[in-house]
UniProtKB/TrEMBL annotation:
Active site: Y106, D147, H248
Name of the molecule in the record: Exodeoxyribonuclease III
Origin organism lineage: Bacteria, Pseudomonadati, Bacteroidota, Chitinophagia, Chitinophagales
EC number: 3.1.11.2
NCBIfam families named among the record's database cross-references: exoDNase_III, xth
Site, as annotated: Important for catalytic activity: D218
Similarity field: Belongs to the DNA repair enzymes AP/ExoA family.
Cofactor requirements of the protein: Mg(2+); Mn(2+)
The species this protein was found in: Chitinophaga lutea
Keyword tRNA processing: no
Domain named Endonuclease/exonuclease/phosphatase: residues: 4-248
Annotated site location: Transition state stabilizer: N149
Enzyme's top EC category: hydrolase
Site, as annotated: Interaction with DNA substrate: H248
Keywords on record: Hydrolase, Magnesium, Manganese, Metal-binding
Length: 257
């Protein structure tokens, strides 16, 4: 079973790229972030024509998350992270697909830091940590995946010295990610490639992709029930080089059974 995550950076504007990638790689389940489309403008028919069931939580202008499946029904559980009923941003959707509970998330960027946006990022992270603890307590196979907007270590960022004050790399952000993982989650890519340079995002500016000046900010966290099934993981880096592609590349894992 192949599960992928992809920050599409605008699902309608990048639809040809998304459909081309789906046809090329045929992942079983896909989590999308940054749809940048209100609920009624999501390209549902095009996704279904590509062979996928879909559940999505859109939002005008920004944010937005979706789960796609070609291996059975998407049994949606929630479309908001618990803990703040006043938070109207579309950043989380959760469903059971083929016996696996999948949380698709788009964690806030947080810049400029310090400031209100950074405070929101950290408060969102606290809510995620609380909810993920509850998920682990259910003793289910769980995947938490998406754009975390965190580089956990210096290995995950090109020229880390240039990012020390950025919200994606500040000590508070990295500490929150490590607190999350320490609950018992497995960082899938680092489990298989503990010492390799792996990036999932390259900025549009300064020829970042051509220079391979990237960041690893899209992650797969696996619960203890699921981690032993991890077989492969990777980044479809070439997709970032396609015309009118997102600044993220798709990331994927393969599970046994």
């Amino acid at each position: 079973m192949r599960i992928a995550t992809y920050n599409v950076n605008g699902v309608n504007g990048r639809l040809p790229v998304l459909l081309r990638w789906l046809e090329e790689t045929t992942p079983d389940v896909v989590c999308l972030q940054e749809l940048k489309a209100p609920q009624e403008k999501f390209p549902e028919q095009a996704i279904r024509d590509a062979g996928y069931d879909v559940a999505w939580h859109g939002q005008k202008s920004w944010n937005g998350v979706a789960i796609l499946s070609r291996v059975g029904e998407i049994k949606e559980l929630r479309r908001a992270l618990p803990g703040d009923p006043d938070d109207v941003n579309s950043r989380y959707i959760e469903a059971v697909v083929n016996g696996i509970l999948i949380g698709c998330l788009y964690l806030p960027n947080g810049n400029p830091a310090p400031g209100p946006k950074f405070d929101y990022k950290l408060s969102w992270f606290k809510r995620l940590i609380a909810h993920s603890k509850d998920l682990l307590a259910q003793d289910l196979p769980v995947v938490l995946t998406g754009d975390y907007n965190v580089m956990p270590t210096e290995l995950d960022v090109y020229k880390p010295e240039k990012w020390v004050d950025d919200a994606l790399f500040r000590p508070e952000t990295r500490a929150a990610f490590h607190e999350l993982v320490a609950q018992g989650w497995t960082d899938a890519l680092r489990k298989l490639y503990p010492d390799e340079k792996i990036y999932t995002f390259w900025d549009y500016f300064r020829n970042a992709f051509g220079r391979d000046a990237g960041l690893r900010i899209d992650h797969f966290l696996l619960s203890p029930q699921l981690a032993p099934r991890l077989k492969k993981a990777g980044v479809d880096k070439h997709v970032r080089g396609w015309e009118k592609s997102s600044d993220h590349a798709p990331v994927w894992i393969e599970l046994k059974g």
